[in-house]
Amino acid sequence: MEVEMEMRAGEEIEIGQDITPPLPPLSSSLHHSLLSSHCSSCFSPLPPQPFPPLFTPTFPNTPSSYYCSSLCSSADSPLHVSSAEPYLLLLLQSHPSAYPNGDSSDLRAALRLLQSLPATSPYPRVAGLLTNRHKLLHHHDHRVRDGARAMFLARKMRDESPNFSIDATIANVAPHDAVLEEAVLSLVLTNAVEVQDKTGRTLGISVYGPSFCWINHSCSPNACYRFSLMTPPTPPCWPETALLRIVPFGRSSGRATQIENGVCSNNVLAKESRGYGPRVTVRSIKRIKKGEEVTVTYTDLLQPKAMRQSELWSRYRFICSCTRCSASPLTYVDQALESN
Ligand SMILES: C[S@@+](CC[C@H](N)C(=O)[O-])C[C@H]1O[C@@H](n2cnc3c(N)ncnc32)[C@H](O)[C@@H]1O
């Protein structure tokens, strides 16, 4: 039976309080267009050129990862290479039709996650995180099919290196070869958040553990989140339970039950978390009673209801039924947004 996860307040929470510690990402990746201007490890802008090469790209004249310091390079470049990212970037450069989406950040975050996952990962959850693979594929989601195929090809090229031929590799992919890649890419599309700097500029995406990813959406949320960009060496990794003021609940057949073991012991990837990269902290924006569900928004709340719903459907394939969306007549705020 499928269990849906949610997070609830474990204690009374006043407005404007941090309710999680700064949580490190399981996987993150810069947006494709920022690869040559920002550090792939800490996401900060690269110093002006020329700066000493800190990492030699696998393929010359192909987009790659660059780093602002030798610490960032030694923290991140082994995963960049072992996850098959250089092969994906080479593939997308020479065969852009392999993933017409343009931005490769979701595929790269998924490749990195795949590299650090335990070999036996159960479906429909991987490391506790919902994949939503069936739901996304059921709605003919080409992002998942095309993206998983590109990920599969990149991993195959890495494994066959140096004897691969891109054209021969593409021709030899069978329709059901990329099931694992489909699951992990679906997980990224379902759970990743856009990382923004202090000015609100979007830098890339990150996937966090269950303490963050089990928080559901509401168009009238009681919490928000912010990022802190961390340069290695970072302060010691917070145990996920330190300062964690929210507790996980599993809902099946409408009934919600608290998950006894807490988040940390359920999080098989907690030990694998990179410790560097953008950390996320959740903060209350309303008073939250003990036992009340904690929610954030997955969409721009300054849009009319129809646009919010359409965005949530096209990205996540769910219809929001929060109090604001089901209010009839429309709330005062929604009336004002509709008339603009
Ligand atoms: C980041 S996960 C949130 C945790 C998720 N409920 C779980 O069981 O792991 C995002 C997914 O949760 C579900 N979800 C989140 N907010 C929702 C809402 N307000 N109504 C219905 N489904 C929601 C959707 O399936 C969405 O793709």
Describe the structure.
This is SET domain-containing protein. It comes from Malus domestica (Apple). It holds the Pfam family SET. Residues 162-299 form the SET domain. It is a single chain. With 340 residues, this protein is α+β, with helices and mostly antiparallel strands. The protein folds into three domains: 4-24 and 208-298, SET domain (Beta-clip-like); 31-190, no CATH class; 301-340, no CATH class. Helices cover 33% and strands 15% of the residues. The protein has a three-stranded antiparallel beta sheet, with no helix packed on it. α3 (105-116) crosses α7. The longest helix has 19 residues, at 142-160. It is globular and about 60 Å long. It starts with a strand and ends with a helix. The model is unreliable at 263-272 (pLDDT under 50). The protein binds S-adenosylmethionine. S-adenosylmethionine (SAM) is lined by residues 4-6, 130, 132, 190-191, 213-214, 216-218, 316, 318, 320, 322.
Topology:
Blueprint: E1 4-9, E2 27-30, H1 70-82, H2 85-94, H3 105-116, E3 125-126, E4 129-130, H4 133-138, H5 142-160, H6 166-171, H7 179-191, E5 193-196, E6 202-207, H8 210-213, E7 216-217, E8 223-228, E9 246-252, E10 255-258, H9 262-266, E11 279-284, E12 295-296, H10 305-316, H11 323-326, H12 332-338
Helix pairs in contact: 2-5, 3-5, 3-7, 5-7
Pfam families: SET
Domain SET: 162-299
Organism: Malus domestica
Enumerate the spans where pLDDT stays under 50 for 5 or more consecutive residues.
263-272
Q: How many domain modules?
A: 3
Radius of gyration over alpha carbons? 20 Å
Tell me the major beta sheet.
3 strands, antiparallel
User: Which cofactors or ions or other ligands sit in this model?
Assistant: S-adenosylmethionine
> What order do the SSEs take from the amino end to the carboxyl end, as H and E?
EEHHHEEHHHHEEHEEEEHEEHHH
Q: Helical region count?
A: 12
Straight-line N-to-C gap? 44 Å
Domain SET: 162-299
InterPro entries: SET_dom, SET_dom_sf
Protein name: SET domain-containing protein
